[in-house]
């Protein structure tokens, strides 16, 4: 995807390190069960997502729409159907209790946190850079890294093939059918040629790569070189401060009392 | 025979997986439409997110393929900007691992429908375990939780088990699977002079 945007300091962080830090943060977030703490941490991550990805505010807002959807739907299920003692409201199957309400918000904020972390990463990292960095810093085997990069390159071709099949079906008048039988037919008519074509192409690419002496040795030369810089330290420091400050703030100035 | 996956196996697996990654992204929007219906209707279609592992394994029939495929499909989904963000990566690893374990138990020698269904159920189990940590579903009231589990279970068996199996079966008729599968003793027998 080619989108124009300013390159902020988030782009200069080593991609492997960025992925690792965000992964650790996600796993930490799985174990945060305190709502105040969770809100503080989420705010800190949203700040990075909103201000430092270098994308226009319009695009950021557009990307946030599915977010809010997930936030609402994840928390609502828990708020309506969760267990709890202190009853606030009951109507048919729905029973809202204080405990379920708080837990619903917690789950919603956790979903929000995960989404913000993920989008911050994918907005500020080019896949090619990530795989080069993974080969250099994490010692990922080149065959996996190059396969990924090749596969990502094949996505536009798959889209094009999809369009071709669709046009062909339109010309032959298969698009108009309705009902279960026609859906079944359509799924088959699209998926089988797309899959078999992709497999054949992937196999051909692999044969070509091996014919050109692609080897799986790690002491190869790289077109892009990645190392560590002061931005990496700043990035780690930001999250350490966020986790500590968020914890103290949640004790000193709780937003909601539980 | 050298052990491990060759470049060709890895590339084919990842390309299949990335193709499913695109479907996973599109599936997300269907999931939104089902979610407001309430009562966990959305869980019926959840099983689609487990399909990459079984399909890739049934096509290539090699160890490690199911795990790799599910991770690759999740990363593809992640790179294309899934609104669930890093969640999909964590879930992908766990789901792939559980499916892989089933194939491993059968020593990578069974490719029938029941093993595909078993792998689907295992992936379902993995995702439920993750949900206990991430979505705190243990705190749902009992009737709601059972509905949730049953819906997801049915969906997994249908999508990741049966659909995956039939998809590969139809794919076999195109002959493309012969390109990527390891040779079996039957293939050698056919070469023998009669």
Which overall shape of chain A is indicated by the principal axes computed on the Cα atoms?
flat
Sketch the topology of chain B as an H/E string, one letter per element: HHHHHHHH
Uncertain parts of chain B: none
As a percent range, the share of strand residues of chain B is under 5%
CATH topology of chain B: Arp2/3 complex 21 kDa subunit ARPC3
Q: Round the mean pLDDT of chain A to the nearest integer and report it.
A: 86
Features:
heterodimer, A: 258 residues, mainly alpha, 2 domains, two-stranded antiparallel ribbon, 2 strands, 71% helix, 3% strand, flat, B: 194 residues, Arp2/3 complex 21 kDa subunit ARPC3, 8 helices, 0% strand, elongated
Please describe what this structure looks like.
The complex is a heterodimer of chains A (258) and B (194). The model of chain A has no long low-confidence stretch (mean pLDDT 86). The radius of gyration of chain A is 24 Å and the shape is flat. Chain A has helices at 15-30, 35-51, 57-81, 98-124, 127-137, 142-172, 180-211, 230-252, and strands at residues 87-91, 94-97. In chain A, 71% of the residues lie in helices and 3% in strands. Chain A has 2 domains: 9-126 and 228-252, no CATH class; 142-211, no CATH class. Chain A is mainly alpha-helical and 258 residues long. Chain A has a two-stranded antiparallel ribbon with strand order 1-2. Chain B has 194 residues and is an all-alpha fold. Chain B has helices at residues 7-34, 52-60, 65-79, 87-105, 113-134, 142-173, 177-180, 185-191. The two termini of chain B are 26 Å apart. Chain B has one domain (7-179): Arp2/3 complex 21 kDa subunit ARPC3, CATH 1.10.1760. Chain B is 70% helix and 0% strand. Chains A and B meet through helix 1, helix 3, helix 4, helix 6 and helix 7 of A and helix 1, helix 3, helix 4 and helix 6 of B.
